[in-house]
Design brief:
This protein has four helices and nine strands; from the N terminus they run βββββαβββαβαα. It has helices at 67-74, 116-121, 140-143, 148-158; strands spanning 2-9, 20-31, 34-41, 44-52, 57-64, 81-90, 93-99, 107-113, 128-131. It comes from Candidatus Woesebacteria bacterium RIFCSPHIGHO2_01_FULL_41_10.
Amino acid sequence: MEIERKFLVRKLPNLAGIRKVVYERYYLYKGNGIEIRIQKKMNRYEFERKIETTHLSRETQKFEITKQEFEFLKGQASEALVRDSYLISENPEVSIKIYHGRFEGLMRAEVEFKTEEEAEKFSAPEWFGSEISNSSLGRDSKLIDLTDEEFATELKVAV
C-alpha cells in the first residue's frame, strides 16, 4: 500500500551529496483508478500497476522486466516522462522530483507514510509549497495528459 502526499517545492534544499536517480516513465493504461506503466530507473526496468483505494493511498504491484520487454512495451506508449529523484529523508520518506522536457520547472516533494492518519497529521516544512496531491501536477498519469498551455497555467496557479 502506498500512502503519500505531494507538494510543490518552494525552495530547493541543498542536494549536494545526495544520489540522483533518473526515471524514464511510460503509461500503457490509465483509467477507472488504475494505472499500468513501465519505467527505466537507472539500469533497472520495471512494470507497475497501481490501483487507487482512497484519495491518499494506492495499492501497488511492481516487478522487474528485461530491457527488451521495456523497449517493446515503450513502443506501445505515447511520450516519456523524465525526472530526477532525490531521497532526502527516510522517516518519513521524503523525495524530491525534478522534471525535464515538457514539464521543466516542476519540482515536487513526495512524502510517503505508513498510515493515512500519519499522512493527515503531517505538517509540511517551510521549504514546501502548495499541496498538489489531488491535482494534475501531483499525479504523473494526469500530468502527461496536459497540453503545454494547461501545464503552464496549472503550475502558475499552484505556485
